[in-house]
Specification:
Bound molecules: adenosine-5'-triphosphate, magnesium ion
Helix content of chain A: 55-70%
Largest interface: A-B, 24 and 28 residues
Number of strands of chain A: 10
Number of strands of chain B: 10
Radius of gyration of chain A: 32 Å
Structural class of chain B: alpha/beta
Radius of gyration of chain B: 18 Å
Strand order of the largest sheet of chain B: 6-7-8-3-9-10
Oligomer: heterodimer
Distance between the termini of chain A: 37 Å
Strand order of the largest sheet of chain A: 2-3-6-7-5-8-4
Number of helices of chain A: 20
Chain lengths: 665, 252
């Protein structure tokens, strides 16, 4: 095929710079593949037909918006690396008599070529992988799928439109930067060192202050839902602080090291420190970007993996039995409870359903505001005044008889004594006062299963304090109205498959719902139905988290790689001179290692510190999803840190080898 | 015994696929005594840079041998070549080859630091040299902040600081204006008078006229040489240009 003049020049340009273009095109392709897959799963009808698939699709849709924004920013950023190296060539064309319009045409064709290559590759990979990821996702959601292959033309089109748009922006941006520079600047663009930078204490201090502030926000947020906005503020502040710290911090550190004569004038450090100082600002920005990407990887993967591996426990927590009934009623009359119980038992017998582990309790609960450790305000209006969720709290009374029956213990209590268990809030002290009632807390219950019977107490974000008491109190407000809400919890295990389970639940519901009167509420739940919500949704989160982490990770790798390659080309001539005046190949290696130890450890180290400070926040978010297992979270976080550090070091080793090859040839 | 002996040096460049070969040096023989100031002249493409690169141990000869202070280059293991070069030879290049990442001071320290010199001795060794070269006040500046002549003086300081047996210079005045060239040549004469052996490749008759001996290379051999003896620079200049004219005519 004969190409026109400009397309040919464009093709040559890409071919000559393949060391830079190939990773760039690969990254573009990966991003569009991931975008396609997410879009396909989020809009395809496979998921919308599975139970729990709709919430999964919402999560996935969130994912492709993230990928969209991220790949836009990231590709624009990395493209500027490419263009910096190409500017020399454009400058030459310019001096040789090509005007900027001609250069624009070359650039236009380059954009077209990269777009075609990366989109073809990306969409093909996306289509091939989409079946695999469908299977994987379904597996994680514990669902079955068939093996037919399908292509979503809508998603292909969306992918094409989105990435064409992004490349269009990149093209325009490059055109603007070429138009506003003269040929001499272009020719020298990549050889222009920064002037020896001044160490900027002010920026450094600002960075430390902002970071400290962000960390304080992150660890003091008590309730992530009501403080969502604050949370985003903290994230933005951390990003800003990271850039400030990396830019000014690396300058400061290198300057200090340079002042230390014994350190600086050592052949291991001499060359590396001087080079770090030389391109400090750019270096700092690159390191900060790497740090932020690594933080994103760490937060995403440790949170979502914890959700996935904790999903079974969360489900068991929420559904302690296969079948659960919760009935809210008023007054103290329990004849309706007896009716419901015998209806359920009769139905089960009639249908020959095997059942076991029947547990029931009547909790009497009281919404209140926990104003201090041992004082609960029960005045409804006053409580409503404390709209902030972190004061709101349910007091749930359980009778000692039910408790003894349920646990097999034999405890007796006096009327002013209680046992207590705090769900999602601090333990009580020695006493607890609510309204006119005061109890002595004689024991803090250790096993959650002893009092908590799943249900809304577990899934609700409002914390609960369980009080096991001898006699149900009567608590009234000033007007003498009964403030207590009563609720019957009943649950049992049965061994039914998915369909039979749903059928039976439905049948019993039809009867029971007809029998309740206004003012009462009835809920039934089965574990089988909850499973797809929990396992399915959490599986989707993990799946999405892994995909996003993968994208963030390859982006970080690409930045590291570009840093090394670009610096390699810049340093090539310098190392050539140094070899002439007596630098040995081993010295080059040592110098590269010194550079690694001095500076490359920072991004990952700071990312881990960010993660540590985000930890309380992550823990609270996971709490909302019913993941209470702190050990699991700690081990998932530790494993993520370990794996990311290993990947980081390996990638750095490999790319610094490339650097070594370039500078030592 | 001479400081440096060059015996039967031959260099053949093979093209990549071995079809063609260029004989840059055919049979070069000469020796250099301690304290001499030698200029090497010849037409473009006559093999001067090739010769200098071989003397600098940056390149290996096809045949022949070089002996510095009784030690033959061919005996030195390639792993020790870098150290040998660093400890015994100093270089001044046409394009200065200063590193823009270093201040002038650090540029000059570079060979010492690479040789593992203790940091506290660095300043002691630099001070007298910097004073003699008149760059004491420029040491903290970066290469992009000083003139070409100043850069070349820093490069000379970098070559001198290791106390090399020989300074090798390839077209050291090539990138300088005439005033800076004169300053540099006077500097070379001065350090030569202090006992430093210098071997310089040059196109410039004026530069060569400062030398105590001029070698002419043509067709891969040392074709002719002139000793300065008691001649003044002007007389030497005249003699060199006459020889060059003669060589050019003789070559036709
Ligand atoms: N690396 C090489 N490979 C092949 N041939 C080479 C190489 N280097 C030099 N030559 C050839 O060897 C010959 C001598 O080159 P050299 O660079 O030594 O000349 P020169 O005297 O320094 O010239 P000038 O005065 O122009 O610098 C030339 O014909 C050149 O083409
Ligand atoms: Mg030459």
């Amino acid at each position: 095929m004969k190409l026109g003049f400009y397309p040919r020049l464009a093709k040559e340009g890409i071919r000559k710079n393949k060391q830079l273009y190939i990773p760039y095109l690969l990254t573009c392709a990966c991003m569009s593949a991931v975008f396609y897959i997410l879009n396909y799963l989020a809009t395809g009808d496979l998921l919308s037909h599975t139970h729990g698939g709709e919430s999964a699709q919402t999560v996935l849709a969130l994912g492709f918006v993230v990928i969209l924004i991220f790949s836009g920013i990231f590709l624009i950023y990395t493209n500027s690396f490419l263009i910096r190296r190409r500017k020399k060539e454009f400058g030459l064309y310019n001096i040789l008599g090509m005007n900027k319009k001609n250069i624009g045409r070359i650039l236009f064709w380059e954009t077209i070529i990269s777009l075609v290559i990366s989109l073809t590759g990306g969409i093909l990979a996306g289509i091939l992988l989409s079946k695999g990821s469908e299977l994987l996702l379904m597996n994680m959601m514990e669902n079955e799928v068939g093996f037919h292959m399908s292509i979503s033309w809508g998603s292909v089109l969306t992918t094409i439109v989105v990435y064409t748009f992004i490349h269009g922006i990149i093209f325009l941006k490059t055109m603007v930067s070429i138009t506003f520079s003269n040929p001499i600047e272009l020719v020298r663009a990549d050889t222009f060192g920064e002037k020896n930078p001044k160490a900027n204490w002010l920026l450094g201090i600002a960075g430390v202050v902002i970071l400290g502030f962000a960390y304080i926000i992150a660890i003091t947020i008590r309730d992530p839902i009501s403080a969502l906005f604050l949370f985003f503020v903290a994230v933005v502040l951390v990003i800003i602080a990271t850039y400030l710290l990396m830019i000014s911090g690396s300058v400061l550190m290198c300057k200090l090291l340079q002042k230390n004569k014994n350190y600086y004038y050592n052949k291991k450090h001499f060359v590396s420190i001087s080079q770090l100082v030389y391109r400090m600002k750019r270096n700092g920005a690159g390191l900060a970007s790497i740090c932020i990407l690594m933080t994103m990887v760490l937060v995403t993967i440790s949170t979502t993996s914890c959700m996935y591996f904790g999903s079974r426990a969360a489900m068991e927590h929420r559904y302690p039995r296969d079948y659960m009934v919760q009935y809210d009623f008023q007054g103290t009359d329990t004849t309706k409870v007896d009716e419901l119980r015998s209806y359920i038992m009769d139905t089960l017998k009639e249908k020959n359903v095997e059942y076991s582990d029947v547990v029931e309790e009547i909790t009497t609960s009281l919404p209140g505001a926990r104003l201090s450790k041992d004082y609960i305000e029960i005045d409804y209006n006053a409580v409503n005044g404390y709209s902030s969720l972190d004061k709101l709290c349910y007091i749930r009374f359980v009778s000692i008889d039910e408790y003894n029956q349920h646990t097999g213990k034999n405890i007796t209590l006096k009327d002013d004594e209680c046992l207590s268990y705090s769900l999602r809030t601090d333990d009580l002290g020695k006493t607890i006062t609510m309204g006119n009632k005061e109890y002595k807390v004689i024991e803090i219950i250790e096993q959650e299963e002893d009092v908590v019977l799943g249900g809304d107490a577990v899934s609700d974000i409002v914390p609960s304090i369980y009080l096991v008491v001898n006699q149900m109190p009567s608590i009234t407000n000033d007007k003498g109205e009964d403030m207590l809400e009563r609720c019957w919890h009943f649950c049992l295990n049965w061994k039914l498959d998915k369909e039979a389970d749903a059928l039976l639940d439905q049948e019993m519901n039809d009867y029971m719902f007809n029998n309740i009167v206004p003012g009462e509420r009835l809920f039934t739940d089965t574990k089988e139905q909850g499973r797809s919500d929990y396992i399915g949704l959490y599986g989707t989160f993990f799946y999405l988290g892994s995909l996003l982490s993968f994208v963030f990770l390859i982006s970080a790798v690409l930045i590291i790689y570009y840093k090394q390659i670009c610096e390699g080309y810049e340093d090539e001539a310098r190392f050539n001179i140094m070899q002439k005046v007596g630098m040995k190949k081993e010295d080059i290696k040592k110098s590269i290692n010194s550079q690694m130890l001095t500076i490359f450890i920072f991004p990952i180290a700071l990312a881990v510190v960010h993660l540590v400070f985000a930890f309380p926040m992550i823990q609270k978010i996971l709490l909302l999803f019913g993941i209470l297992d702190l050990k699991l979270l700690i081990s998932m976080t530790a494993i993520s840190c370990l794996i990311c550090t290993i990947i980081y070091v390996v990638v750095y080793k490999i790319t610094s080898n490339t650097y070594y090859k370039i500078v030592s040839h | 015994m001479s400081l440096l002996e060059v015996n039967g040096l031959k260099k053949v460049y093979k093209t990549r696929f071995g079809h063609n070969s260029v004989e840059a040096l055919k049979d070069v023989n000469f020796s250099v005594e301690q304290g001499e100031y030698i200029a090497i002249m010849g037409e473009s493409g006559s093999g001067k840079t090739t010769l200098l690169n071989i003397l600098a141990a940056l390149d290996k000869p096809t045949e022949g041998n070089i002996i510095l202070e009784g030690k033959s280059f061919s005996q030195i293991k390639s792993s020790q070549m870098v150290e040998f070069r660093r400890d015994h030879l100093g270089f001044v290049f046409q394009e200065f080859n200063l590193l823009d990442t270093f201040s002038l001071e650090d540029n000059i320290y570079l060979p010492l630091v690479l040789a593992g010199e203790s940091p506290k001795n660095l300043k002691k060794r630099l001070d007298p040299i910097a004073k003699r070269l008149g760059i004491s006040s420029l040491l903290k500046k970066y290469p992009y902040e000083v003139s070409g002549g100043q850069k070349q003086r820093a490069a000379v300081a970098r070559a001198l600081i290791t106390n090399p047996e020989i300074i090798l210079a390839d077209e050291p005045t090539g990138a300088l204006d005439s005033k800076s060239s004169d300053e540099l040549l006077n500097l070379f004469s001065e350090i030569n008078q202090l006992g430093q052996t210098i071997l310089m490749v040059t196109h410039s008759t004026k530069a060569a006229s400062h030398a105590s001996r001029v070698l002419f290379i043509k067709d891969g051999v040392v074709f002719h040489q002139i000793y300065k003896g008691n001649m003044t620079n002007e007389q030497m200049y005249q003699k060199i240009s006459d020889t060059l004219t003669l060589l050019a005519q003789g070559g036709e």
